[in-house]
């Protein structure tokens, strides 16, 4: 009987000391919340809040997004559409506006992210439906050309990802390369 009491007492002490050790741990990585997106006719503004900085310096932050056609069990990552922001955070909140490149009336998943020297941390998943304007050409250089010529197109409301841009001349799709995006 005494041996059973000692075993029971030892078990209780071990369990409570393990629980205390778990609760005393300090969060080593940041915690972020993705807030509801603000959608209007000019695009969408993505919003995030850092609720705990942990013990890691935040090097980069931003948002990732993907078309919901990928499925309800798909979470966008840095290999999908994304924006890196690396200016110094002025507060616990940050935002980014997408003014083009989203298909009008299409639904997207988005989430905020943070990058430290050790971790990539993603926020919760948010769904939004876009109402953006269609892309429009601002300038062509040169204005005319022949087969095989390179034409530089300056446009508004284009996608930030090369794979989401299509250039058609008449009824033929051309090879296009996204050289740079100026925000």
Shape descriptor: elongated
On the 0-100 scale, what is the average pLDDT?
79
**Head-to-tail CA distance between termini:** 76 Å
What's the β-strand tally? 12
Element order: H for helix, E for strand = HEEEEEEEEEEEE
Biggest sheet: strands, sense, closure?
5 strands, antiparallel
Cα Rg? 24 Å
Helix content: 10-25%
Count the DSSP helices: 1
Structural class: mainly beta
Strand content: 35-45%
Low-confidence stretches: none
Report what the structure shows.
The chain is mainly beta. Helix content is 12%, strand content 38%. Strands 3, 4, 6, 7 and 8 form a 5-stranded antiparallel β-sheet that branches. Strands 1-2-5 form a 3-stranded antiparallel β-sheet, with no helix packed on it. Strands 9-10 form a two-stranded antiparallel sheet. The longest helix is centred in the first third of the chain and has 22 residues. The chain is elongated. The protein starts with a helix and ends in a 10-residue tail after the last strand.
Entry summary:
With 183 residues, this protein is mainly beta. The protein has 1 helix and 12 strands.
Question: Any descriptors?
Answer:
single chain; 183 residues; 38% strand
């Amino acid at each position: 009987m005494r041996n059973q009491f000692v075993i029971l007492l030892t078990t209780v002490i071990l369990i409570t000391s393990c629980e205390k050790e778990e609760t005393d741990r300090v969060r080593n990585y940041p915690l972020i919340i993705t807030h509801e997106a603000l959608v209007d006719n000019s695009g969408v503004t993505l919003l995030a809040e850092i609720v705990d900085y942990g013990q890691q310096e935040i090097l980069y932050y931003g948002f990732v997004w993907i078309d919901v056609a990928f499925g309800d069990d798909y979470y966008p990552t840095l290999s999908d559409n994304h924006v890196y922001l690396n200016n110094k955070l002025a507060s616990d909140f940050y935002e980014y506006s997408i003014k083009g490149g989203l298909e009008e009336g299409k639904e997207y998943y988005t989430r905020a992210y943070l990058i430290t020297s050790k971790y990539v941390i993603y926020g919760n998943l948010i769904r939004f439906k876009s109402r953006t304007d269609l892309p429009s050409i601002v300038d062509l250089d040169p204005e005319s050309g022949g087969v095989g010529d390179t034409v530089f197109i300056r446009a508004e409301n284009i996608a930030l990802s090369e794979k989401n841009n299509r250039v058609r001349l008449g009824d033929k799709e051309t090879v296009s390369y996204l050289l740079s995006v100026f925000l």
